[in-house]
Amino acid sequence: MKKIMATFGMAAALMLTGAANAQETVHFWYHFDNPENPMSELVEKFEKANPGIKIDAENVPWNSYYDSLYTNLVGGNAPDAAMVKLFAQPRLVDMEALEPLDDRIAAWAGKDDLIDNILEINAGPDGKQYYLPVQYVVLYLYYRTDLFEQAGLTPPKTCEEFLHAAKTLTIDENGDGTPDIYGFGFRGGRGGHDHWGTFVLGHGAKFEKGGLTTPELIKANQWLVDLFREHKVFPPSAPNDGFQEIIGAFKAGKTAMTIHHIGSANDIAQALGDKVSAVPVPQCGEKPWTLYGDESLAIFSSSKVKDAAWKWISFLAEAENNVLFNQATGQLTVTKSGSENWTLHDKRFVDATVASMPFAALLPQTQETSDFVNTVWPTTMQRALTGRISAERMMQEIEALYAQ
Amino acid sequence: MSNQAIAALDGVRMPSRRRLLPYVLMTPAVLVTLLIVFLPMIEALVTSLYDFVLSRPRATQFVGFDNYVRLMQDEVFWISLGHTAIWIGLTVPLQMALGLVAAILLNRTFFWRGLARALVIIPWALPSVVIALMWRWIYDSNTGVLNDLLLRLSIIQTAVPWLADPDRALYAIVVTLVWQGFPFFMVMILAGLQGIPKSHYEAASIDGASSWKQFIHITLPGLAGVLITAALLRIIWVANSIDVIYVMTGGGPGYATHTLPLYAFVKARQNLDFGYGSAIAVVFTLLLAGVVALYLARTRKEADR
To answer: pLDDT class for A16, splitting at 50, 70, 90?
Structure first.
């Protein structure tokens, strides 16, 4: 009985102190697909250092992350802070959903530890800083070293070499008429615009009227479609394939090359050992093109606990916390001190990332990019790959979106 | 006031109170229905008259029937409408046929009938998302079990990308939905079968009718009521269901598995174009209204009986 009374007493006392401190709760959204999630560890550490703040971190499934975010923002149910990508920034700024962070960043001790140029890359369309970077990647080409060696090939530096390698490595091992290995694992489903960009956008593309339908670009897109329809160097499931499928096929040895970033490196190296390496993507036009893959943290203007939210997101962008964060996502830290002693990836994948950085590009910072990524690119690409529309029509439809 | 007068007033009041009572009792239900069914419907109707894109809230303006005019000129709308027709036209009859066969089999007596009836219900009891994920892997062209089986049986020579081929994807999903939905018909038909008096069959066999003739002249007419009601219900459900398609292909490749409700969903939720999405939903509701009216007429007839 005494024990129970004591427990009640303690609970009451806790509640009282809680009320006295006016505990604030920060609702935070993030997306990790790695089952080993260190978020609770980070939250615990943060809450210990900031007793007045409670973090309610929710892992939201990636497939509907932005759909849910936009509708919750409009419906008044938004979290206080969230993980966000650059392509969404123009839309979020237009919706007046973001809180400018310039003053807070300027006064923040961790600012100088951020790697060079990364704040500028993440600046908003109106020049203000809404995003606090938390990790980055650059897309590069994965290839099977053993298969390349057997065939006497070197990793492709141009699209001609790429086509030659892809054809050579589309191999029918058991002679049943169906290839058992395909040259390249192409992502035709949502998110595959980063593959497409490498082969097409390097030919002088501009996301504006007349900027996507030049003869060179249409020819380049036709060349890409032909890889699937004529040369048959992609698996037949390519039009629907997403991240799971391209990585799964590459790990299972069903494809000899694919494009992704360092986020999948450990997983792939575990499956293939030293039979896999990475190089920058091949150059297909006047200059190589690859996507800079970003992830930042932002605070929403609707939040009532902005100071607490800032404490939390800046905590995640600080050296050792940021390293722990990236351990879960498998991406690269945005801090200089964290990069110095980087042990989370094999060197060959870090080297490929660093070598790709000089020509890494972003998609246009406009509203239309959300629709391009989510619906226009996947449907037109799938229709072109399956022969429903021409490569030219695909480019026209994308241009029509941006020329509105 | 005299006692008589009070008695007379009471006499008037009583019946009117009694007349009011049913309405009073119904009020909560009607209010809830109005609130959660009709209010959103009216809101959708109003939204469809606006150019309303969630990401550009300040650009919202009244545009009258512009969304509907755009819809009539939208190639994807017509593609989706065609797919919806194929989708309903194949799924419901196939589910019914499979359900009928299963029900007749399970209506016979055999020692593990109870177990068999429980097992057959499983597809109906599983969540749609689980079913969709399961079938996505069954159809997978690299590792899927379907291709593996067909290759081993030498029915096909090369692996078929069931869901990535625009000519096959819709039919592949129809098969999945038939599998998922046939237990519903089976349960309904099984109940219907048990309602047909045994004496009819006895009389028919004394008259020398074959099993086939008994099926055509006793079983089918006996089941007609159940079949029609179940089919009408199922048409409405199948027409509206997008979960399995969305998880299996997301409407792709291209527009190959777009149906109207899915198109409305993609427009509203992914492109945040709620005005246009609502217009699609309104048009589709009008198209379905015919089926709903048939269903309502039937239930009323049954209630009158």
So the answer is: very low
